[in-house]
Amino acid sequence: TLGLATETPAENVLLYPNPAHDRFYVTGTQPIKKLMLYDMSGKLMASTDQNQMAVGHLASGVYFVQIVTQATSEVKRLVVK
């Protein structure tokens, strides 16, 4: 495992587009406080306090996005092409 703790799942959190080419966006019922992007080994690749993140500079592959809202934290899988 990557050691990424998933607390109470964020309700109605949507990560799109997936797969992503240049940028992905996150929307949900709660405001997004932070996004953290991890590679398959669990290394933090990027983080932001915005609801979007550029990924065009990353190698193609599978990543994990930790989405933190006021009340929840959830990890979603993201494919970068």
What does this structure look like?
This protein is mostly beta strands. Helix content is about 0%, strand content about 50%. The chain contains no helices and 7 strands. It has a 4-stranded antiparallel sheet, with no helix packed on it. Strand 1 (about 15) and strand 2 form a beta hairpin.
**Total of helices:** 0
Mean pLDDT across all amino acids = 91
Please count the beta strands (DSSP E, at least 2 residues each). Answer: 7
Computed Rg: 12 Å
Query: Which blocks of ≥5 consecutive residues have pLDDT under 50?
Result: none
Pattern of helices and strands: EEEEEEE
Shape: globular
Give the oligomer, counting copies of the same chain as homo and different chains as hetero: single chain
Determine the strand fraction and express it as a percent band. over 45%
List the strand order in the largest sheet: 4-3-6-7
User: How far apart lie the N and C ends?
Assistant: 23 Å
Please give the share of residues in helix: under 10%
Q: Characterize the main sheet.
A: 4 strands, antiparallel
Question: By helix and strand content, what is the structural category?
Answer: mainly beta
Descriptive key words:
81 residues, mainly beta, 4-stranded antiparallel β-sheet, 3-stranded antiparallel β-sheet, 7 strands, globular
In short:
Helices cover 0% and strands 49% of the residues.
